[in-house]
Amino acid sequence: MNRDLQPLEFKDNFFETVERMEAFWAGEMLDRPACSITAPKPGTEPLPGGAYMEGAREEFEPIIERVVHNAGCTYWGGEAMPHYVPSFGPDQFAAWMGADLRWSDSGEGTNWVVEFVDDWRRVFPLHIETEGKWWRRMVEFMTRLGEACRGKLLVSHLDLHSNADALSAIRTPAKLCMDFYDCPYEVDKAMRQVRGLYPFVYETFYQAAEMWRSGTLGWVPIYHPGRSNTIQCDFLALISPELGRKYVIPALEEEASYLDACSYHYDGPECLPHFDDIMAIERIHVIQWTSGARNKPDLEWMDLLKEIQARGKAVWLSCSVEQMKLFHRELRPELAFYSTWAATPQEAEAALEWLVNHT
Predict the structure, then answer these.
(1) What stretch of H or E contains 124?
(2) What pLDDT score does 295 carry?
């Protein structure tokens, strides 16, 4: 276990959690499955506010003050690491490449990207606009967060939507789908260029937020003492396995190989035609299955979750304590990570004890 890591003020059992998570990433288990469970800390009063994509347009200081204060108002039980997840929206990677972001006037927590590619040949080489406003703003936000959170909580790495997700954002999904047939050479070139941006983007924010001090997690919060993140390609839902193998799977393999450990955000049944290819990526350790709001709940995908485990991957499940107990009766404990919550620290510890007694 790496004892050079800086412990966190808001995590009493920091080094015990590091040990448990190292076992989890190795496909092993101590006395129970990995479980992140949070609860309100008695005698504290959280500050109101907090919304997806905050920081993109608001002043940083009030956000950072609330982030640090509220982390101290939370009981981080089991393998829950104190953390904050920054984001400027799902298409922030495209914005760093030169697209602009727009927000809904309704005030709802959503935004979209303004595409800018009419002809791939006119935008080569694809690159990060390091002087662009969205890149500079995120670098500053992550730097300020890293300074304020130092020794207290982790700043999560970002929801990147890189590889083909970024290309579909700057081109539009429909046009990119047609490009695979109309101009495959240009698409192949674009994919190779966007794949080359991932290490620079990852490393910039890894350093800016000082993630090297205490370890990392992605927007799917699974802690690792080294470099980790959640990778994905939602665009796979729109293309065939043949196109996926040619253009997207190599990008995912590269991203997974760059990291010390990673989880994969598997976004819905529409991506299931690519199941075998994703499962074959050795460096993907954990699958976060997302069934989607219009589909049956996760408990009714048990056969799929078991098949994921049969392929040697762990499953990450966000669920109530009662749902966790149902999953636990069916799934292999060494290949499960539960993310849940409780009303009090005592209830959180009781849930962890239940896992110990029933494993």
Answers:
(1) none
(2) 80
- H-type helices in 119-271, by residue range? 133-149, 163-171, 173-182, 184-195, 198-208, 241-243, 249-258
What is the per-residue pLDDT for 2?
67
Beta bridge partners of 155: 84
Q: Look at residues 131, 132, 145, 128 and name the one whose alpha carbon lies nearest to residue 101.
A: 132
- Give per-residue pLDDT as tens, 1-44: 667 999 999 999 999 999 999 999 999 999 999 999 999 999 99
AA letter at 55: G
* Residue/partner pairs of 243-248 with CB below 8 Å, 24 or more apart: 243/180, 244/274, 244/277, 245/277, 246/188, 247/164, 247/180, 247/187, 247/188, 247/191, 248/163, 248/164, 248/191
CA dihedral 322, 326, 327, 332 (to 10 degrees): 130
Q: Please name every residue paired with 213 in a beta bridge, in sequence order, or none if there are none.
A: none
Interacting residues of 148 by C-beta distance below 8 A, sequence separation 6+: 64, 65, 67, 68
Domain boundaries, the chain: 14-357
Beta strand 74-78 with 83-84: parallel, antiparallel or unpaired?
Answer: unpaired
Domain spanning 14-357: which CATH class is it, in words?
alpha beta
In order of 278, 291, 327, the CA distances from 302 in angstroms are 19, 11, 8
Average pLDDT over the chain, rounded to an integer: 96
Identify the band that residue 109 occupies on the pLDDT scale cut at 50, 70 and 90. Answer: confident
Which pLDDT does position 292 carry in this prediction?
A: 78
Query: 148, 67 in Cβ contact below 8 A?
Result: yes
Residues 6+ apart with CB under 8 A from 42: 344, 345
> Rounded to whole angstroms, what are the CA distances from 356 to 35, 125, 130, 325?
11, 54, 49, 12
